[in-house]
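Example 3.
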Amino acid sequence: MEKLTIAGKSFSSRLFLGTGKFRSNELMEQAIRTSGSEMVTVAMKRIDLENPEDDMLRHITHESIQLLPNTSGVRDAEEAVFAAQMAREAFGTNWLKLEIHPDPRYLLPDSIETLKATEKLVKLGFVVLPYCQADPVLCKRLEEAGAATVMPLGAPIGTNRGLRTKDFLQIIIEQAGVPVVVDAGIGSPSHAAEAMELGASAVLVNTAIAIAADPVRMANAFRQAVEAGREAYEAGLGSVSANFEANASSPLTAFLQ
Amino acid sequence: MFSEVLEKIDWDATTEAIYAKSDADVRRALAKNHLDVEDFMALISPAAEPYLETMAQLSYRYTRERFGNTMQIFIPLYITNSCTNSCVYCGFHVSNPMKRTILTEEEMVNEYKAIKKLGPFENLLIVTGENPVKAGVPYIARSLDLARPYFSNLKIEVMPLSVEEYEELTHHGMNGVICFQETYHKANYNIYHPRGMKSNFEWRVNGFDRMGQAGVHSIGMGVLVGLEKEWRTDITMMAYHLRYLQKHYWKTKYSFNFPRMRPSENGGFQPNVVMSDRELAQVTFATRIFDHDVDISYSTRESASFRNHMARLGVTTMSAESKTDPGGYYSYPQALEQFHVSDERKTGEVAAALRALGIEPVWKDWDQSFDELTCRK
């Protein structure tokens, strides 16, 4: 399996994990370890930034893991840029998952503010991974602004509904010059495998693992699904298109013989 | 303003509609993903009683999907029980000959420090009575300033304010407001709130619009169950109110509270209706099915046992170890309580009980850096 490279750093695992919603920090840690994930996002609002012994952070920090603080909670670009600078100082990393969702119900990303904040943060030296709509034009604009990846959503956060935006994700993947990480909505290992088969560079999963009856085994299932999906993509999927299934009784090209 | 919307919703017709809901109405509501207020009425109606278990299962599922296995924890702090209102059901009403306390700055800080010793609280709810002269907006602003070094999220539960006053308080780090409408029955509202500033129904019910206009991040709503015999109708009005607010102030997060009154043992105001555990559970499930995202908050008015059982079934915020008398954390008991606390467990016990249920207590879910720019304005 090819390694994934983001901003010059290489990753063996293509499964990124979120850390909300777990029933304990211990269980979260076990799930992270089992998943093999090397990129784990954490909401800065959940962490006591002044406390180096913060319980949640303690259970995430590991030498093999790139910590990816996120700005969940901010409502516009200005707040995001300010919070990002706090996060950089507190977490000691310039990697950032940019999340600007002013709508607290569906947590849908604000495309305009996300683009503005990406432009500013890149100039300030951040490695920006923006959570965004599955909008191919927006993704190109984010890329041009210097985003290290784009993270389009499959479905609204926490809904486990799968790749509802599949048609757009395919265009994004086809056009992207940066890694495409499918974020939000992935509710089962089959969804993750599907995203990887489409050619996504990675997937980010949180709710599906955190609220599973056995989060650790579910993390393992996702690990396998992401590997299988990626392996299938790299192996070159055989044609499954209905385009090739038509065997007309009166061929349209018979006249060419 | 919501008062104009409310005027067009007939109370009696709504009550009749709730009781006319049929089995088919309930089943249709349960099958939907996006429910309207009519569906909500079906789910809180007597017709839904046979579906309580199904509703609990759905509520459990939706809550876990949206909130995960977590519970937000907060603590209320009464900084004054001085009040010029005369709410007939309230222990703090103006003609009650009790000793009134308005905490000094030093006493406030003592409270903050005492709270931090109880547990790792980061969500503080500052509560006052209504006394704009002695404990008005500058006093509340000062309490926020002094609280900021200790807590990352500050909410207030005070008298309704103007847009400018709410805005002013956001500059002092306030990012949430809780205000109970008590009842949406306008005529009876005036019976329960005969004098004082609270007797102005419109000012109170439109306060939520003013919070939204001021950009308050989080708004808590509540009907005081025990005032109106037809509490289902009252809660339905709150559901209409929620939908109205969500459309107009879409960046704000909303929470529902269902404070219910118990029969008073030592005389005083007797509730007009007592809501059973079963009924409160039904309303809680119905709320979660109606709106997957609305925060549902249970205070220590509810018993430890009931709170434990409901913790997985729709409730997403809880208080712990609350004292409802000003100064109660630093040195208690001194002043009189506003209402009797039923769940008297220590913070650590509440947290341990949640963990035993497979729920992680979340103390911090906000960062002060998010408020910093607003505070500098």
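The beta strands of chain A are 4-6, 9-11, 15-18, 39-43, 66-70, 95-98, 127-132, 151-152, 181-183, 202-205. Chain A has a mean pLDDT of 91.
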